[in-house]
What does this fold into?
Amino acid sequence: MPTTFNKIHRLKNLWTWETFIEQYGVGPDIKTLKTAYRYPHHKPSRHTVALVDKLHDREFPGPFPAEVDGLMDIYESFIRSDKKKDYGSEIQKLESYISFEIERGRSQLPLRDARFYWLLGDICFDRIPAYRNVDELDRLKARAIAHYQQALAIIECETELSELVKYKARQNILACHLNAAKRKGSWVEDKETLDYFEQSDFLGKTKEVLSLEPFNWNIARNGLRFASMLHDQLNVRYFYNQLINVSKLFQNLDYEPYETPALSRSSDFQWAIENVLMPSTPGN
It folds into this structure.
């Protein structure tokens, strides 16, 4: 889900500020929009969020059928719900229904099937933290990755789809590798994870997406995170510079974008900070 910051940037690429505010009757003034446009840490009002969401949905409609995205929303509501209630049975029923629908309607509506596979991948992915047995963990990881790969295979055939959608699918596959490896205590040193980094050219794909949306600090931060985890000095510098190009505020490693921890507060960026961004000098 893109942030309000990113959505405003996308919309601003279409219009001048004056044309922007002409798109609605009552809503934020230009000054308010510019603040949300300039500062990644800015918390927009609920009214601004709702208005920007409406305009963004109109100008950049989602690529997947609305009814399947609705199922994604239902699943997310289960995951985010009160932890005292167990929705395991409901999720299993949803999983069975999706599998049935895929078999029934295979190839007739490719993007429908892609989103179904994506949701099945999400369901398997969210179960990974609960498994400790290595064999069971590997089987679950393989299932999640297989679902995401099936979704990606369909998506890559759809030439009109945004590269950002394809990137997100690849990111989900990478997250499966990373989360399973972390459960086994190997994290980024895991061979399968490293192989996927290389095979998918993940950092290269990250750069491609950034070239399309240079304002997307979330993607730049993601690239910096993985470059740090891979001890890749050149790409650490590249993605850090991309962050600064979005906002000079990122020069402060304690800077916190909206609903996102500062670089200095995440261990994933530790290598980058200590060895590239703020290396210690001899004698200190």
Notes: Residues 64-200 form one domain. The chain has three domains: 4-59, 64-200, 213-284. The chain has a mean pLDDT of 91. The first helix runs from residue 4 to 12.
